[in-house]
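Quick board copy: two proteins, each given as sequence then tokens.
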Amino acid sequence: MVRNIFGAAAVKTYKCPGCMQDIRPGVAHVVAWPADGYGEGADRRHWHTGCWRARDRRTPGVERSRNAPRYG
């Protein structure tokens, strides 16, 4: 299931799983969760709209610490 959230309705900060960047309050975005009935509220993911549209063309985001090597 996918739902668009308008900027005025976005009141919290979320982390986008597509780019691992914050979605700040007031920014329109997309919320997605499993449609099979097995998902719970904790299974919802908030995505930037552009990241959601590009999800099939992107590799999974890898979260690294600041001191981690960039490649390798």
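And the next:
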Amino acid sequence: MIRSELLNELHKDNPDLRAEEVEQVVDVFFDEITQRLAEGGRVELRGFGAFSTREREARVGRNPRTGDSVNVPAKRVPYFKAGKEIKNRLNGE
């Protein structure tokens, strides 16, 4: 599902809201998750899962085109851990 499909589904489920209002709600939702992760926090949506960040150490990688060594700096990357309810639904339980 892409963002526009999500907006359409939410608008269908909430016909009393204008499309612009639905889009604003989705924007705020994703902005808040992103902001919390940028601050080093964690976002947990019960029954769905938890978003957090993980540290990646600096390393030496390879440029796939040339084969040259490239220094890759340390960085934080987003991480998602699925909740028990979503895991059960995926496995038909």
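Board note added afterward: DSSP finds three helices and five strands in the chain.
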